[in-house]
Input
Amino acid sequence: MNSSSCLPREFYARPTLTVARALLGMRLVRLQDGVQLSGIITEAEAYIGQEDLGCHAHSGKSLRNAVMFGPPGHAYVYFTYGMHWMLNAVTERQDFPAAVLLRAIQPLEGIEIISARRQGRDTFGPAKLTQALGIDGTLNGIDLCSPASGLWIEPGPPVPESAVLTGPRVGLYTVPEPWKSIPWRFRTAINH
DNA sequence: AGCACGATGCTCT
DNA sequence: GAGCATCGTGCTT
Output
């Protein structure tokens, strides 16, 4: 696959809900040690600005969330629950902290390697996705619009509106309403 | 098929 | 010291 076809920065420099929806069906590509792995994005969630009490940026800029305050099209990768890495794509304009959490892929290239890393289990889950593609904190802040970083997103098969499901974001147990239930989760209706 | 729980360590108050 | 944008196991229905 041609790595020059990574999505341009203007793709990410749009409203976060637009980007989250548009990422469904796109191909997430990881080039690591000369081996290319990829998968179709099937689930994503929007985290939008300091008003959003579910967003890491809600209490201001910190060392951890600083990348979200930067320019769009970069990877915000953070560590949680003592063992899991999460991958986000930064959206909107510089200084407006927002991002899309990538929550699931359907493996496309490098299926044997992915299967081995996952010990035969699925890749539907934000930490499963990063484990499958070998994504960790060393990729925090990298530019998704440059293939040199080894991680980028390319166009993929379009997902029709009829195949898009929405609902509340996952895992925000202690986040107050309306943020806890606002339907900012997008997924492709496929049988797992 | 669904729920409860333990693992495990970083970040910020 | 508390709280995680989770996962896999093991137990219950």
Notes: Chain A has one domain: 3-188. Residues 45, 47, 54-56, 78, 80-84, 86, 88, 101, 103, 121, 125-128, 169-175 of chain A lie near DNA strand C (CB under 10 Å from a C1'). Residues 16-23 of chain A form the longest helix (8 residues).
